[in-house]
Specification:
The protein has 6 helices and 3 strands; from the N terminus they run H-H-H-E-H-H-E-E-H. By secondary structure, it is mainly alpha-helical.
């Protein structure tokens, strides 16, 4: 009985440990499956319906029979647009994923980095890096990514962003205190000056 109890206890404890085991955070979501599938579906659609549209244009002269050509071309153009609509965003996302992987490697394990440093190491201008990072954050390529208020620093996770928010609030409070102290000092200096002027006039 004791032996069975120990076995069951160890089994239950191991299952509890597995349940409590923290899920590893994903800082870079570089999945390409959906984009690749879109390209594999979209490109053949474009090719097939482009050939069909060119064939219709070759057999039916749009100058002489515009109505017939338009009616025949309309569904072909719709499918062609569908193929382009599938392919173009997928290609754009793949390019964005390549850049995101490049930026992630540049960070080399850091939780935050200056935009200027990313721009130097990736041979891009800072404005382009900010634009790319904004798209990556919007498309959840960096699920916990954040840019600071001035768009000069990129933060990889929520913990660093919370620290940044706390520091910014502390800085604002210090600025308020400094402005209040400066206002009081100016008032005191101004009242002393008024006293000196009055005394000078009296003399």
């Amino acid at each position: 009985v004791r032996q069975n109890y120990e076995v069951m206890k160890n089994t239950v404890n191991s299952k509890i440990a597995e349940v409590r085991k923290p899920v590893p955070k994903i800082y870079l979501n570089a999945k390409r499956t959906e984009s690749v599938v879109r390209i594999f579906v979209g490109v053949p659609i474009q090719v097939i319906f482009m050939i069909a549209w060119l064939s219709v244009t070759a057999f039916v002269n749009p100058v002489w029979n515009f109505g017939v050509w338009f009616v025949a071309s309309l569904p072909l153009a719709a499918f062609l647009a569908l193929g382009i609509g599938l392919t173009a965003p997928a290609l754009g996302r793949l390019r964005l994923l390549d850049k995101a992987t490049k930026y992630y490697r540049i960070m080399n394990g850091k939780s935050y980095i200056d935009i200027v440093d990313i721009a130097k190491m990736s041979n891009e201008i800072p404005g382009a890096v900010v634009k790319n990072l904004s798209k990556m954050i919007e498309q959840r390529i960096f699920p916990e990514g954040h840019l600071d208020a001035e768009r000069k620093v990129f933060m990889l996770n929520d913990d660093i962003y919370r620290e940044y928010i706390a520091i910014e609030e502390q800085r604002r409070e210090q600025e308020k205190v400094a402005k209040a102290a400066e206002t009081v000092e100016n008032r005191e200096n101004g009242s002393d000056l008024d006293g000196v002027i009055k005394e000078g006039r009296a003399y």
